[in-house]
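Reader question, answered in our methods column.
A reader sent in the components of a multi-part assembly and asked whether the whole thing could be modeled at once rather than chain by chain. We filled in our standard form and ran it. Here is what they sent:
COMPLEX SIZE: two components
ENTRIES:
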Amino acid sequence: GQSLEQPSEVTAVEGAIVQINCTYQTSGFYGLSWYQQHDGGAPTFLSYNALDGLEETGRFSSFLSRSDSYGYLLLQELQMKDSASYFCAVSANSGAGSYQLTFGKGTKLSVIP
Amino acid sequence: EPEVTQTPSHQVTQMGQEVILRCVPISNHLYFYWYRQILGQKVEFLVSFYNNEISEKSEIFDDQFSVERPDGSNFTLKIRSTKLEDSAMYFCASKGKGYTGELFFGEGSRLTVL
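And here is the structure of the entire assembly that came back:
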């Protein structure tokens, strides 16, 4: 099976930078994704890393180290609207030939003025 | 922009009743999923569906649950004999070809079992 660890809560100031870490254990690893979820809303895709290194998409960047089974999401120039839960998710081949996405427990980010 | 749609947005039912949650995935997608999220908790995988059959299911997805793709557009989750602990948000998701790590989620169906 898969397991993921990420901090449960993070608080940061508007305009600052915050990093949300994720460590995982899995077999059949394809890649690591990040999703954002506002209260009452659906998870929305932010980024995906299949290879080691940094992927940048605007204010958000995501990093992966396959050898360390570790990744992080970096949010820059924080805005109040970034207050949400952020989930890392592992894409893996379960062995049954099925592509499955397993989510971590989520990190609740609170952006304060 | 194509989107996954789910109905109903909220359903209240009595314990022991059957419910059917409906989803219309993005039209050219081939892989379909149901996830659930109990309030304040993580998103949990229930089942994946490809080529008109279940490709994988989690321990949560026991005999109480079933999925069906009755026609070319709908994808349904049936929960028989609902229990209080089935109260959750149920998300449908779909995916196209390739491994991009991106699932497209619907807005969810909130199920409340009384």
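What stands out: The longest strand of chain B covers residues 88-95. The mean pLDDT of chain B is 93.
Send us your own complexes using the same form.
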